[in-house]
Amino acid sequence: MLRMNFIRSPRITLTVKVTFNSRIPTTPYLVRFASSNSVNITTAHFDACWPQLRQQGWQLVSMAEKSHNYASQSIADSSGRGIEKIYTLKDYARTWAFLTQISMKSHAARHHPYIETQYNKVKVTLHTDDIKDLSPLDLDMAQSFDKYAVGLVKKSASK
């Protein structure tokens, strides 16, 4: 017999307890929803952060136009705004060092960017699927990623 109990708490944690046989103890499985990411960005917050991000090389993109470029179903159904940047790193080892840093930051925040990578290039797109737009977390993560890239990014040739 398969019996599932769903218990909700105020922190939006869903506890699923699966019981196959009442004589066998089971461990509850926790599924957490990233509700903190699901807040629309205010115009004031965007206007305060965007000039610095744009100066650092971030671009505002339409997620509807990008949807055909990704195999992920979540981005294929996306619309709204996103921000995107291409980092050109010094070499392959630094590329993977940077990828490791941004992946750990993203995992800790439970907010995962779309990432494309080549030998020494990393393209990062930030967008909150839950609200189909930018959230404050997207801009905060963009600033963090720029800090991680210091010392790893290839210097552009001066004219």
From TrEMBL:
The answer on whether this UniProt entry bears the keyword Transport reads: no
Q: Which domain of life is it from?
A: Eukaryota
Q: Which reaction does it catalyse?
A: (4aS,6R)-4a-hydroxy-L-erythro-5,6,7,8-tetrahydrobiopterin = (6R)-L-erythro-6,7-dihydrobiopterin + H2O
Pfam families, sorted: Pterin_4a
BP terms from Gene Ontology: tetrahydrobiopterin biosynthetic process
What keywords would UniProt list here?
Lyase
Enzyme Commission designation? 4.2.1.96
Which InterPro entries does this chain map to?
PCD_sf, Pterin_deHydtase
**This protein is called what?**
4a-hydroxytetrahydrobiopterin dehydratase
Q: Which organism is it from?
A: Nadsonia fulvescens var. elongata DSM 6958
